[in-house]
Amino acid sequence: MSKLGRVLVAMSGGIDSTVSAMMLHEQGYEVIGITMKTWDYANSGGSKKETGCCSLDSINDARSVAVKVGFHHFIVDIREEFGDYVIDNFVDEYIAGRTPNPCVLCNTHIKWSSLLKRADALDCEFIATGHYAVIKDHEGRKFVSKGKDDRKDQSYVLWGLSQECLERSNFPIGGYTKPEVRQMAKDFGYEELSKKAESYEICFVPDNDYRGFLKRRVPTLEAQVAGGTFVDTQGKVLGQHQGYPFYTIGQRKGLGIAMGEPMYVTEIRPDTNTVVLGRVDDLLRNGMTVAQVNSMKYPEIPSGIEAVTQIRYNDPGTLAKLDNIGDNKVQVEFMANVKGVAPGQSAVFYEGDDVIGGGLIYSSNNN
Q: Per the residue annotation, which of 53, 54, 103, 203 is the catalytic one?
């Protein structure tokens, strides 16, 4: 075994994970590659060809790198555990009138758990992934910090990782930009890989039609929720909609109703199959409650601390005051009103570039 140790690298077949594996190999680690089959899109009834980390091409790409370099590579089928947890949660959240974030759930409960389990079986001290993020230490605690490339930073989707996971994790490309990673792929001899397109879709909804996915997953859903009403913020009925699970907070397009001015989904009421529409100002919120909080940098989120709070992946974040109210919940008071707070999405708290913690948005406060 290498003096640096044995590391299990999650390899999707893409440029980021491949370069991560090559970097660790060059540094002297004993690398073992693993590709996890999480989803078979053909079973979902969608029309788009299977792409991304679960496709046969991607699996073959990952294996070919391992064969060329000379390290072991394994393919692990985790479709059953992935489907039971991530996909069932995805469906359940929409039916509950919330907007889920399956990538966060997958990272926290499926991928890292599967990696650690296989790492232990293969006597690997460490696991590594191709995430654009950095792991740092504060008074004996591990936490995630933003990656060097602001446009590719993935710290937002890693807020749920436990101390046990972080202690054994490595993000080799976190200190590099995407162009630098592409150049490294070329330098390692993977010219075609360096040009490989990226996918920003949910792996099990590669056509980006989550409504169609819900209908195929729950064939009776459309009939169950059809005929609900659109109302304005005063409760006036504006028309009928297709069913509350098919709408998300902040949605403007595809409402199927003409009001003479832009209208947005401001609230979803599953109990009455009601979707509330309002003007853009009606989306503004001055606070929210965040539940299932995982504190990273500190043993618990300090009450009264100010942190830039990000409420979606591409959100630049808003300065807010945090109040730890116990039971793994944090009350957030924004310093400036925030648009489109969606229950079910992740809220992540930043101190500079450091993730101090995060959780799931439980509810929002109206102005």
A: 203
Looking at domain 6-130+172-194, its CATH superfamily turns out to be HUPs (3.40.50.620)
Of 3.20.20.450, 3.90.1150.10, 2.40.30.10, 3.40.50.1100, which CATH number belongs to 283-366? 2.40.30.10
Which residue among 53, 54, 106, 124 is the active-site one? 106
Q: What is the pLDDT of residues 206-256, one digit of tens each?
A: 788 999 999 999 999 999 999 999 999 999 999 999 999 999 999 999 998
CA gap 49, 224 in Å, rounded = 30
Q: Going by DSSP bridges, is the β-strand pair 284-295/354-366 parallel, antiparallel, or unpaired?
A: antiparallel
| Closest to 169 in 3D by CA, of 218, 131, 198 | 131
What is the C-alpha to C-alpha distance for residues 116 and 110, in angstroms, rounded to an integer? 10
Q: What is the pLDDT of residues 261-270, one digit of tens each?
A: 999 999 999 9
Nearest to 153 by CA among 321, 267, 308: 308
Q: Does the annotation count 106 as an active-site position?
A: yes
Max alpha carbon distance in the chain (Å)? 70
For the segment(s) 222-278, the CATH number from 2.60.40, 4.10.950, 1.10.10, 2.30.30 is 2.30.30
In the block, tokens 């304005």 appear at 232
Cα→Cα distances 203→8, 216, 259, 289, Å: 22, 16, 35, 29
Q: Which residue has the tokens 């397109």?
A: 197
- Whether this model's pTM surpasses 0.85: yes
Helix, strand, coil proportions of the chain in percent (round to 5)? 30, 30, 35
